[in-house]
């Protein structure tokens, strides 16, 4: 990657080639943010459909380096959902099969493929990255990786898709940021006459100030294992979305079975899912029909619609309810 020092060539120390490549996004989030992206080394675990989309976005955004790690082989399903895998790749390692198309997206990003199992990686492997994003991982693997990242100040992201259901989690440790806020006009400010000119004056006179803020992110272990023993927690339990408990069931299934529910194992997987649900604190939030198939989708558990954007009709068919879902969880 070509780089230049401050004052040489491109603005703010980036090369002219980079300035041209990233012109639109520099206008969007600023030069300093682009420079931080350019210095970032990212690890991406899991190259199924979601992982391919994340890889594409990171590469086009212009990170310094991206390592794609996946020890699984390309399956026939991958060829229909993973656009980085070329035709005829079934049986190849998924990360290695995705490498060429990923590199072609942006030659200025150093993209590498790692065909090893993430669970075999030592702690030192993760500390070489600035951010780690995991998909398709077991619950135990995610907890271990997040613990390493949390202890070493590495940004951690996790996400996955299960049919209509999906989730995302971020552990940024202590995250400092700046928020722009409009100053509130004082009550004793001189009155301005009404009219178009007055309205323009009011808009032009509006001032903004930058406010520094800090957010403390909790580790994944705390997010997945809340303490429900207190009365306040019990009240919160009743208000918690069923999506949270479905996620717990699906992650535990993946840990126990080493895979996700599959249509060819429908009867066996339904029994296992119901058994796992029985051991969850929010078991009552998931009726027996949560494993039932949707008319358009065969695999169990893929029909539970997310609280963000799924159609009410899908929710009803998935749950077998005679009445529509509450308005708060249906799409507009």
UniProtKB/TrEMBL annotation:
| Places the protein is found | Nucleus
Q: Which residues form the THIF-type NAD/FAD binding fold domain?
A: 22-187
Listed A to Z, the keywords are: Nucleus, Ubl conjugation pathway
Instruction: Determine the domain of life of the protein's source.
Output: Eukaryota
Q: What is this protein called?
A: SUMO-activating enzyme subunit 1
Which molecular-function annotations from GO does this UniProt entry contain? ubiquitin-like modifier activating enzyme activity
Q: In which pathway does this enzyme or protein participate?
A: Protein modification; protein sumoylation
Q: Which family does it belong to?
A: Belongs to the ubiquitin-activating E1 family.
Quaternary structure annotation from Swiss-Prot or TrEMBL: Heterodimer of SAE1 and UBA2/SAE2. The heterodimer corresponds to the two domains that are encoded on a single polypeptide chain in ubiquitin-activating enzyme E1. Interacts with UBE2I.
The record, for InterPro entries, names: ThiF/MoeB/HesA, ThiF_NAD_FAD-bd, Ubiquitin-activating_enz, UBQ/SUMO-activ_enz_E1-like
């Amino acid at each position: 990657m070509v780089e230049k020092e401050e004052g040489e060539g491109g603005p703010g120390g980036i090369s002219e080639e980079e300035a041209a490549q990233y012109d639109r996004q520099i206008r969007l989030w600023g030069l300093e943010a682009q420079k931080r992206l350019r210095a970032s080394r990212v690890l991406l675990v899991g190259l199924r459909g979601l992982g391919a989309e994340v890889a594409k976005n990171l590469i086009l955004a212009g990170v310094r380096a991206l390592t794609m790690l996946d020890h699984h082989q390309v399956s026939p399903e991958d060829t229909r959902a993973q656009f980085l895998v070329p035709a005829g790749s079934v049986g190849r390692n998924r990360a290695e099969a995705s490498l060429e198309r990923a590199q072609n997206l942006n030659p200025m990003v150093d993209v590498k493929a790692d065909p090893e199992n993430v669970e075999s990686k030592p702690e030192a492997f993760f500390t070489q990255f600035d951010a780690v994003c995991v998909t398709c991982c077991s619950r135990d693997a995610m907890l271990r990786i997040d613990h390493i990242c949390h202890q070493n100040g590495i940004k951690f992201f996790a996400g996955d898709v299960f049919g209509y259901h999906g989730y995302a989690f971020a552990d940024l440790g202590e995250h400092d940021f700046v928020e722009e806020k409009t100053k509130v006009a004082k009550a004793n400010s001189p009155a301005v006459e009404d009219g178009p000119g007055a309205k323009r004056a009011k808009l032009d006179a509006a001032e903004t100030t930058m406010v520094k803020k800090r957010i403390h992110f909790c580790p994944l272990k705390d997010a997945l294992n809340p303490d429900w023993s207190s009365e306040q927690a019990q009240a919160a339990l009743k208000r918690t979305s069923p999506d949270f408990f479905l996620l717990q069931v699906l992650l535990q299934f993946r840990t126990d079975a080493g895979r996700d529910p599959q249509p060819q194992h429908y009867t066996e997987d339904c029994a296992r899912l119901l058994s796992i649900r029985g051991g969850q604190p929010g078991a009552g939030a998931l009726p027996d029909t949560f494993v039932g198939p949707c008319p358009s989708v065969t695999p169990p558990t893929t029909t539970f619609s997310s609280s963000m954007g799924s159609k009410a009709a899908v929710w009803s068919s998935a749950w077998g309810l005679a009445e529509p879902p509450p308005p708060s969880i249906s799409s507009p």
